[in-house]
Amino acid sequence: MTERTDTEEEQVRGRAGVPAAEHVAEAAVAAAGRAAQAAAGRLRQMPSDGLDETLRGIAARLREREAAVIAANAGDVRAAATEGLAGAFVDRLTLDAGRIAAMAGQLEALAGAAAEPARTRIRDLDDGLELQEWRRPVGVIGANFEARPNVVVDIASQLIKSRNAGVLRTGSSAIRSAGVLVDEVVGPAMADGGLDPAAIQLLREPGRESALALVREPALIPLVILRGSGESTRALAREAALHGVRTLAHADGGAVIYLDRSADQALALRLIERSLDRLGVCNRLNLLLVDQERWEALVPPVTSLAERLGIAVSLPPHRHPLGQEWALQPGAEATITIAQAGGAQDAAAIANRETSGLAASVVAEDGAAAGRFLDAYAGTGAFWNASPRLLDGFKLLALPETGINIDAVPGPRGPVTFRDLYLRQYAVVPTTYPG
Questions:
Q1: What pLDDT band is residue 24 in, cutting at 50, 70 and 90?
Q2: What distance, in Å, lies between the first and last C-alpha atoms of the chain?
Q3: pTM reported for the whole predicted model
Q4: What separation in angstroms does the CA of 19 have from each of 15, 23, 47, 211, 213?
Q5: Domains of the chain from N-terminus onward
Q6: How far apart are CA 101 and CA 116, in angstroms?
């Protein structure tokens, strides 16, 4: 999942913003892009089973190097705690044996996923020709993401599986952990598998300048994945557009649950609790809408549950936008907003209008009411009697994700996996073409 980016973190730290730093960052990104580009050839040529063996090798090395990874991560966590960064931020930063085991398990699941066909026949044409759709790797893909060390492995593995090289930039709070993961886990496993470790580059220069430089190299890095929530990610997407760099950006989160008048109270409370298990992630419950006919009956047990969980409740009249994303409010992350809705369609309209469109769930026993909500809600993930926390690559698709794209345009939408990191090419060839 996606949270606060390093650029937001550095607003707390302060930014130099001097020309010398910009030149250093530009040179570092260009060098990384050239190195990744030069190393991409082996990825393109490696058989699919060879790529999958490399992914299994990364999982094995992750387990072997667990102590080294945890030790490096402990240094990152101590530094973050010393700087007074929020508890939710420190939680996202932290790796332990359980999280490393989960990372390794996801790598093995990815290795077991069927590769996408490189070529697919579409139809016959005249004169003994046929139309085929070919899938080609992008080449080098950049990624700028929050200070979450597991994302280093998530994105690197997706790039390897899709035959793309990459230039990665994480939050400076995670740089020790990220360095060990690239230098002692990912890189050596790639070398063992016959790939060039230089295909996965990690930027190690702190500061916003390197994030900006990453989205200004269209010839070397034509696509950049932007993970995180907030204005800084949107600003990077705008900067990329100015320089002809395409992005898959996740700038905003915050999930919605609507309790219909037909909602089962016990189920509603269970789903609310499941949706608040982690407060720093993008798909946590942010806005709870309650049908006006059940307001008096449902709000008291919901507020009692929130109190037990240590969650503050914002009730009408609200002094903030209904869709305010509490995960991005330092010191107020443990908050949810509760508001009234005048039925299923009104609830969907509120979710469409007031929130990012990440995910929304309707809790209802009345199938017709649930259908009205689902038909009207235009967001990326829609759920009926289920937690919006399911909008996650591994939970939803049994695959790691590079992020969640919520753009309201054609293209990858929802959890982005290796299957989305290709270019489509139409090829007209003789029907006897050997490929």
A1: very high
A2: 38
A3: 0.85
A4: 12, 6, 44, 15, 12
A5: 6-252+416-428 (3.40.605.10), 255-394 (3.40.309.10)
A6: 27
